[in-house]
Design brief:
The protein has 300 residues and is α/β, with parallel strands linked by helices. The chain contains twelve helices and nine strands.
Length: 300
């Protein structure tokens, strides 16, 4: 594994090996066992979009591993004024040991990897959010001990989260049921990947998707970059809220996960969110541990 651009590029064994290392690093952190595995290493973090979790977990993660992280807002970099990504990649490769990038087009991340000579980590694009899904898989495995056969129902917009959950979940032998409104489904390439897998179903009916689910997952109806569609989307997605009625069709004791930020009263009710807050914030914490594992694998 040279980069983390999207989960489609990773084998099941590579995902398991990241999750195992993440568990170990979490154990060490909880028990105050230092792990300076990236001493002297620098990670550059390019952000074209906002972030709370990704920025802070990567930054503290690098620090805990003995290295450092540089926050590089695209607003301040020359890339924001039109310096080509090919040049940025070749320059930064001479200073840094790795780059994490959050941007719009997946192609930009792929270009960085192609032109640079250091590991590139996708910290969210319109297409994928692999770091989040590694933390999600870690969180689900912590509860159910194994991922094989666990049913995850994703309700809402077929976005970067949906794409990565389908790929990561199916690679780990999970059952993935997705419910999205007509015209708001997952990426066509991801559907091609999932096609024919008996563990995958796609429907427009949230009740159908959530039947006997062990995990119910949702995300915002308007992702970063779709702010102008927010009002229209609120109407389209009205029947796709994760609420008590929907949860009653899931398995008793089912988990609820959300990558955050959450919009209560939209994709999830306050009641459902708060009654699953422990799981959701454990999931947020696991971003730190899962990404440290990725950093050790790629930069170590
Ligand atoms: N879930 C997630 O990636 O959060 P941020 O946008 O705050 O980084
Ligand atoms: N789908 C959301 C995820 C945020 C972490 C977005 O892209 O804005």
């Amino acid at each position: 594994m040279k980069h983390l651009l999207k989960l489609l590029d990773l084998s099941t064994e590579e995902i398991i090996s990241i999750l195992d290392l993440a568990d170990q690093l979490k154990y060490e952190k909880k028990n105050h066992i230092p792990h300076p595995l990236l001493a002297g290493k620098s990670l550059g973090m390019i952000f074209q979009k906002s972030s709370t979790r990704t920025r802070v977990s990567f930054e503290t993660g690098m620090y805990q591993l003995g290295g450092q992280a540089l926050f590089l807002s695209a607003r301040d970099l020359q890339i924001g004024r039109g310096e080509p990504v090919q040049d940025t990649a070749r320059v930064l490769s001479r200073y840094l040991d790795g780059i994490m990038i959050r941007t719009f087009a997946q192609q930009e991340v792929e270009d960085l990897a192609q032109y640079g000579s250091i590991p590139i980590i996708n910290g969210l694009t319109d297409f994928a959010h692999p770091c989040q899904v590694l933390a999600d898989l870690m969180t689900i495995r912590e509860k159910y001990a194994s991922l094989e056969g666990i049913k995850l129902a994703y309700i809402g917009d077929g976005n970067n989260m949906t794409n990565s959950l389908i790929v990561g979940g199916l690679k780990m032998g999970m059952q993935i049921s997705v419910a999205c409104p007509e015209g708001y489904g997952p990426d066509a390439g991801v559907l091609a990947f999932a096609e024919g897998d008996p563990n995958f179903t796609l429907t427009t009916d949230p009740m159908e998707a959530v039947q006997n689910a062990d995990v119910v997952y949702t995300d915002t109806w308007a992702s970063m970059g779709q702010e102008s569609e927010k009002e229209a989307r609120t109407k389209v997605f009205a029947g796709y809220q994760v609420n008590d009625t929907l949860m009653s069709a899931a398995r008793e004791g089912a988990m609820v996960l959300h990558c955050l930020p959450a919009y209560r009263g939209q994709e999830i009710t306050d009641e459902v969110f708060e009654s699953h807050a422990d799981e959701i914030f454990e999931e947020a914490e696991n971003r730190l541990h899962a990404q440290k594992a990725v950093l050790v694998k790629l930069l170590g």
